[in-house]
Amino acid sequence: MIxxxxxxxxxxxxxxxxxxxTLRNQLDVVNFEKKQLLDRLLNxxxxxxxxxxxxxxxxxxxxxxxxxxxMLEAEDREKKRLLDKLPKPVVQSTEKLEKELDINQELVK
Length: 109
What we know:
mainly alpha
């Protein structure tokens, strides 16, 4: 108690012990983190809005069979229509091809 009176009278600050310094440093760190957390909560960082991206809705995986069948039939009709537009290969007889290529039947046997 006398020590405290002398310190107060002469305005002397007591020397802190190592454990007190450690606790003070830890308290400073915790207070700093608490302040940062509070700032982040009160002023959240707004993400930059870049190009607008349009997302397609996720299709329902549980499609009734009648609807699925109609979709498959429509796809098949479209494929057939596209195949019908393609030029059909000309089928030539074997004899005609042999004449064009000058193949003799006697050489083949």
